[in-house]
From TrEMBL:
Membrane topology type: Multi-pass membrane protein
Location of this chain's protein in the cell: Endomembrane system
Chief place where the protein resides: membrane
Gene3D superfamilies hit by this protein: MFS general substrate transporter like domains
Top-rank taxon, per record: Bacteria
Record keywords, A-Z: Membrane, Transmembrane, Transmembrane helix, Transport
Name of the featured protein: MFS transporter
Record field: transmembrane: 21-44, 64-83, 95-114, 120-140, 161-181, 196-216, 253-274, 286-304, 316-334, 340-358, 405-424
Length: 437
């Protein structure tokens, strides 16, 4: 493994998986599919077509959409630690990554069949696309300590996220051109253009994923042909859990990450809702906002990597969290469209930095010469998914109880403040940890 560290082709191929999978986050999760789902997920011939019967309950299709995301994240949070333990134990991390990648890509392709009234196809395709995307990222992220030395983590992580932002914007612009300028494509309908866009996401994801699959190294198998390999998975994750709970730096980082990720992901996922409900922005303005966030996130990732090199990862994250607090407080006073665009620019910048730095920081915190990287990163992923579910739920609950979305934003600012406490503890545990190079 040591000989493969810092191989340029391997590192570039690893970063290219961000280019491959990020189209799912933008087109499926953020831009086109959320608009298409309520229109297509209907019961044909019903007096209330937007109501869907599930397990004896009549639910609004928008509620079903929200529940699908929560259920997918719950599945990832529950099962990924166990699966990552099996992957480390059997040396099949690359195979697991490929399986989840293909599950996600083919689920996106399945959404091409999601026409009006076929809400089961749309719901299942969306569900498994999220599971495939989230599952593959656990194993993808865990390759970082295997292919690069710690001094390369920040720049390499930033490069991956930047490639993801660029690739996803390129494909989204292509797909939006079909929807907004149908005459260029033979006058196709908005429905057909949307379905083709889902298909292109799956094809793009599948094709470009072959690059990292070709170059990434195979993991070392601990026990070959062990008849009870599934028990090995349990033992592996139990061992890593014990290690994490007894390494104060990792434990405090995960708690801090859980808190600030709760705030940042909630802002990202519900920012468009704030624009539409509070400022009454049209769909075109919201799409521009999404694109703006993606583009600004690219320099944000690199600036944060440079900042980490100068002042250390922990201090860099603390600076970014302070910026997030300022963003949330500013959002409370936003009432004009121009100010909303300025806010979106700030959000995109700090989002690129916080995502990139978090991955690199956790990789640096993992013990030296650690082979169970998938198991370690599964706990990182659990904090990511669980904090997203809890954050969006709390935000939605506050809106329901108070009817004031701006109050929810101030609560998120308080969550960011709490995360600073744990990041401060992390630095006190060992002043040398994650120091600047």
């Amino acid at each position: 493994m040591e000989q493969s560290l810092n191989n340029k082709k391997t590192m570039n191929a690893w970063a290219f998986y961000d280019w491959a999978n990020s189209v799912h986050s933008l087109t499926i999760v953020s831009a086109i599919f959320p608009i298409y789902f309520p229109v297509a997920a209907i019961v044909m011939g019903s007096k209330h077509p937007e109501l869907i019967e599930i397990a004896g309950f009549s639910l609004q299709n928008t509620v079903v959409y929200s529940y699908i995301i929560s259920f997918a994240y719950l599945i990832l949070a529950v099962f990924m630690p166990f699966l990552s333990g099996i992957a480390d134990y059997t040396g099949s991390k690359k195979s697991f990554m490929r399986f989840f990648c293909y599950l996600g890509a083919f689920s996106c392709m399945l959404l091409y069949l999601f026409t009006k009234g076929h809400y089961i196809i749309g719901s299942l395709g969306f569900l498994f696309s999220i599971i495939g995307w989230g599952g593959s990222l656990v194993f993808y992220n865990s390759f970082l300590p295997e292919i690069a030395s710690p001094d390369r983590y920040d720049q390499l992580s930033a490069k991956g996220f930047s490639l993801g932002y660029i690739g996803s914007v390129i494909l989204l612009l292509q797909n939006l051109s079909m929807i907004l300028m149908p005459d260029l494509y033979g006058g196709i309908s908005v429905e057909m253009a949307s379905r083709i866009s889902f298909l292109t996401v799956g094809v793009w994801w599948f094709i470009f994923a072959q690059i990292p699959f070709y170059y990434l190294p195979k993991s070392v198998q601990k026990e070959k042909n062990h008849p009870r390999w599934w028990l090995g998975g349990f033992k592996e994750i139990k061992k890593v859990y014990h290690e994490i709970t007894h390494i104060p730096s990792i434990k405090n980082f995960l708690i801090g990450f859980f808190l600030y990720n709760m705030g940042s992901q909630t802002v990202m996922l519900l920012g468009a809702l704030f624009g539409s409900q509070e400022l009454h922005l049209p769909s075109e303005s919201l799409i521009i906002t999404i694109l703006l966030i993606q583009l600004v996130a690219i320099p944000g990732a690199y600036v944060c990597a440079h900042l980490s090199k100068k002042i250390g990862n922990v201090n860099a994250i603390r600076v970014i969290i302070l910026f997030w607090i300022l963003v949330c407080c500013s959002a409370y006073f936003v009432h004009e469209t121009f100010h909303f665009y300025l806010l979106a620019t700030a959000i995109g910048f700090v989002m690129g930095g916080i995502q990139s730095n978090s991955r690199a920081t956790y990789a640096k915190l993992c013990p030296d010469n650690e082979h169970d990287t998938a198991s370690y990163f599964s706990f990182f992923d659990v904090c990511d998914r669980a904090s997203t579910v809890i954050g969006t739920f709390i935000f939605g609950l506050l809106i329901q109880l108070t009817g004031n979305m701006r109050l929810g934003i101030l609560v998120l600012a308080f969550v960011f403040m709490l995360s600073l406490i744990y990041m401060a503890r992390l630095h006190k545990i060992n002043p040398e940890v994650l120091r600047s190079e």
